[in-house]
Input
Amino acid sequence: MTVRDILNEKLKKGALHMTLLDPAKQRPAEAGNITKLAYELGTDAIMVGGSTGVTQENLDQTVKAIKAQVKVPVIYFPSGANAISPYCDAMYFMSMLNSRNLRMVMGEQVMGAPIVAKLKLEALPMGYIIVAPGMKVGEVGEADLIPRDKPKLAVAYALAAQFLGMHYVYLEAGSGAPQAVPDEMIQEVRKAVSIPILVGGGIRDAETAARVKRAGASIVVTGTVVEDGSYIGRLESIIEAVKS
Ligand code: 1GP
Output
């Protein structure tokens, strides 16, 4: 079964939660321990990636350590073609649609595609859309941020992703964003597209996770919350909010 099939089967039953780990932020063994806990709490997949500091070495070691601890898909969430791990189950093959830099839209993809083919990695085509404030990823990705009060602009990008044949669209407020993607924007995108919508950035509590899900997110992504020492109770309530 492909990762896409696994996710599709799960999505038929409701919204999913994914846990994001940045390989540059902790040692591989710790990443393994964190994801084991997230897996036991019911997270549906582990995403591995970060905007800066990802190397082939820390990526491979982190993915291997996570794979040893969880039975859910481990999906690479790349920032470029500089590192691609053969150990993950799949990778988002993504384009930052609202970047001003062509390298982020199609350059890294052209460099990475032959490597993905050689490794026979499952590619999950995804349109990546950066919403204000965008944080680090908006900065390094040179994104023309979608203003928070312009849901129709997000809809136009999401529709473009769908019409280009992408299987997923990701509304990203940026890791550590003070506020998550606005409800109205998620609602409008939900009404417009039929592909699954990932929403991430700034989701740190159950209430926000529930709100994002109610607005129409198919997959709720949390990252920062597991980097915080007091995450256990939080992560449990976030996963519960997404699943209920
Ligand atoms: C970043 O959307 C993800 O790509 C997760 O964001 O770290 O704010 O949870 P947080």
In short: The domain at 3-243 is CATH 3.20.20.390 (TIM Barrel). The mean pLDDT is 96. The longest strand covers residues 122-130. Residues 20, 172, 175-177, 200-203, 221-225 surround SN-glycerol-1-phosphate (CB under 6 Å).
